[in-house]
Protein: ADP-ribosyl cyclase/cyclic ADP-ribose hydrolase
Amino acid sequence: MALVTCKGSSASSFTHQLKKFDVFLSFRGEDTRFGFISHLYDALRLRGIHTFIDEKLPRGEEISTELLKTIENSMMSIIVFSENYASSTCCLDELAKIVECKKNDQLVRPVFYKVDPSKICSQNGKFGEALAKHERKLKDSKKVERWRKALYETTNISGWHYKHRYVFNDNYCT
Structure:
């Protein structure tokens, strides 16, 4: 597995920066790392799917250029939206990069883990609160608008909604 670093870490600690992955997993660690994500990662790995998952990603305000390259070099991204996903600027930066790569034909699939996709689409509840907080803190309306568009766009991609079991849905915003 690769080690990913955020701001403040040396680039030499990133070990597989040029390696291509089948799947890049984007998720909020505090919500899903030791349950859902670890099971998903193991299931993919056991099926021979070369999957990127961060190991001990330090908390930071900026996403590393190496991580952005890893997203670009992945064939597919799976975004696991959870309650606190939008509270992380790193997650939102990953999401914006994933949407950019989708325009270059990268396959993207969202998973809505115990969150209502319509709340993400309409940016209400915790998602709306987190975006408003970022807007006040960053004072960068263009960046926050990019995140808002990325959230809206990915919510309209066919994906899976997990409450107590999986349901495959095609469109959450219309």
Observations:
- The chain has one domain: 11-169.
- The beta strands are 21-27, 51-52, 74-81, 107-113, 159-162, 166-169.
- Residues 1-17 have pLDDT under 50 and may be disordered.
- DSSP finds six helices and six strands in the chain.
